[in-house]
Design a protein that fits this description.
single chain, alpha+beta, 4-stranded antiparallel sheet, 7 strands
Length: 433
């Protein structure tokens, strides 16, 4: 608000909070009050430059190579979207709809990755949110999905609290991992993380890790599962680098090394996974292992293919090729600045037309695949330059060869096969460029 007061009319702002100012490695950049550039610690980058925030305004629009073609593509996508059942679900429930899906499939990470199902998960569900919160659609401008919800808590000690969300990944991390079966308390902790400028996914993983560390006598910060007030206190300590919070502020990898708990810590390349258990969804195991920025679900959103039955969740053979198809389209989505949830509406033909209408480049599917492959390979090359090579493309010990409480397991042989197939396809495409 202070930045906007000194800015041009109709300006928008991006800011960091105390976590970014103190260079906490899970610090987020916040925009429009509730939106987050959450993963990977970008808030700490701004903090390191002594930048609190920025505003921007403007009315210029890009020029397009073929406005008529572009308009035709947009019209086609809008028609497909408005007729899709997925759109209906997003508009009605938003991403919290996944709470029911993942608990039914027993891949909802719970009790710091020990279980795939939370007792009382119904209290975190989209249905509960609609019944107990005042919920209004609050999506991005001009989007027909309108998946985001502006929610107001209606009862209890947090009555009147307003947030955008909570979204599925926040519910899994603050709720499931910490055995917290109250959506009101998840909303409260979501709001605290927003104000501190912290990624809710990493914050939830760090607090659940701390519960396990305390139970093993590795920290004197007294915390147990289902203790939202202790979680809130821990988040404040992390953001301000106070006491044990300073240990966690440098990330799960550093903290686990300092505490001698590297086999306990769940992360890939220092980044904690999303809310899809790879012991059930083995393609997500491949996603987590090979993603350049760590255990990321957005490089391909492959949970969609596995949860909808496009490919069997426990399949290994042929899975890497389909995963790469998802990942390639996602790489192009990022380059075009498209929402991930449009993945059902933009196939290769639509992407080709969109690029042609925007830029004038007419590329067929093979050319687009090679271009997407180049994007991924350049990202991985950057990692290699920084000392993060293929040896880091693995799952953490806690998730490997050890079944969760429901008996699901992903073996070393399976993830090795998946990663090997993945690299073979990527390398073969690189050789064609």
């Amino acid at each position: 608000d202070r930045i906007l007061a000194d800015s041009a009319e109709d300006a928008r702002s991006m800011v960091i909070g105390p976590a970014g100012e103190n260079r906490v490695l899970c610090a987020a950049i916040k925009s429009d009050k509730w939106r987050s550039l959450g993963r990977g610690g970008l808030g700490a980058v701004l903090g390191s430059k002594n930048v609190k925030g920025m505003s921007f305004a403007g009315k210029k629009r890009p020029e397009y190579a073929d406005p008529a073609l572009l308009k035709q593509v947009v019209s086609t996508i809008a028609k497909k979207g408005k007729e899709s059942k997925a759109t209906e679900v997003y508009r009605k429930f938003g991403t919290p709809n996944q709470v029911a899906v993942t608990n039914t499939q027993k891949c909802f990470p719970t009790r710091y990755w020990q279980s795939g199902q939370l007792e009382g998960w119904e209290n975190l569900s989209a249905e509960y949110m609609r019944e107990h919160f005042d919920v209004k659609r609050h999506g991005c401008p001009n989007c027909f999905l309108q998946c985001t919800k502006l929610s107001v808590v209606q009862e209890g000690r947090h009555e009147g609290l307003q947030i955008e969300g909570p979204e599925y990944e926040t519910i899994y991390a603050l709720g499931g991992l910490n055995c917290l079966d109250s959506l009101e308390e998840v909303a409260y902790l979501n709001d605290i993380c927003d104000r501190l400028g912290m990624d809710t996914m990493s914050a939830g993983n760090l607090s659940a890790f701390t519960v396990e560390a305390h139970s093993l006598g590795k920290t004197d910060f007294d915390i147990d599962y289902n203790q939202p007030d202790r979680m809130a206190e821990l988040f404040r300590m992390i953001a301000h680098r106070e006491g044990f919070g300073d240990t966690l502020a440098d990330g799960i990898k550093s903290a686990s090394e300092q505490l001698g708990l590297t086999d306990l810590a769940v992360h890939v390349k220092g980044l904690e996974p999303a809310g899809f258990d790879p012991r059930v969804l083995k393609g997500m195991g491949l996603s987590y292992a090979t993603s350049p920025r760590g255990a990321c679900h957005l490089r391909g959103t492959f949970y969609k293919a596995e949860l909808t039955g496009e490919i069997a969740p426990d399949a290994v053979e042929g899975k890497a090729r389909l995963h790469i198809d998802y990942e390639d389209r996602a790489a192009l989505f990022d380059s075009l600045v498209l929402c991930r949830f449009f993945r059902d509406f933009y196939g290769w033909d639509e992407l080709s037309d969109l690029i042609a209408g925007s830029t004038g480049l007419r590329l067929d599917k093979t050319q687009l695949e090679l271009l997407a492959n180049s994007i991924t390979e350049r990202t991985r090359s950057y990692n290699s330059r920084e000392g993060i090579g293929e040896q880091e493309d693995r799952l953490p010990p806690r998730l490997l060869d050890k079944p969760n409480e429901q008996g699901a397991v992903i073996t070393t042989a399976e993830i090795t096969k998946l990663v090997h197939d993945y690299n073979d396809i990527r390398n073969a495409r690189r050789a064609r460029v």
